């Protein structure tokens, strides 16, 4: 995931967010459910890519497929027309250690990456109930900075 994220975070029309630990604390505070879900997260990255043409769209899809085909298991897939959702996990013994949530349409790809220690039953429930979408919305809302105002320290 690091190489995919680093390869695309400087592309045009990209939103890339890497959540530091203090921000994880803010996200955990949104609800008891989010606290439970994010309690063991050690790394969280989000990237939204907006391909300019069909070639770029295909290239991104192929990169995601390569990423999730290596050492990951697809636990949830929903393909409805041009709207696709994939949730892939990497396990270590009886614990899920990494999660990749990929959603795509013809206009954009969003990828959420979580690293930590997760209960497989909880992850399955999150996938079936669409709660990863809620998490993505929370992340983008918490990190919606005004891009026209320079950041001063």
The number of domains: 1
Neighbour order of strands in the largest sheet? 1-2-6-5-4-3
Major sheet attributes: 6 strands, antiparallel
* Inertia-based shape: globular
In percent, how helical is the residue content? 25-40%
Q: How do the SSEs run, as a string of H and E?
A: HEHHEHEEEEHH
The first-to-last residue Cα distance is: 30 Å
Whole-angstrom Rg: 15 Å
State the low-pLDDT regions, or none. Answer: 145-153
What is the residue-averaged pLDDT?
82
Strand content: 25-35%
Count of individual beta strands: 6
Strand-pairing-aware structural class: alpha+beta
| Discrete helix count | 6
Task: Please characterize this protein's 3D structure.
There is one protein chain. The chain is an alpha+beta fold and 153 residues long. It has one domain (2-117, 126-138). It contains six helices and six strands; from the N terminus they run αβααβαββββαα. Strands 1-2-6-5-4-3 form a six-stranded antiparallel beta sheet, sandwiched between helices. A hairpin with a 2-residue loop joins strand 3 (73-80) and strand 4. It is globular, with a radius of gyration of 15 Å. The model is unreliable at 145-153 (pLDDT under 50).
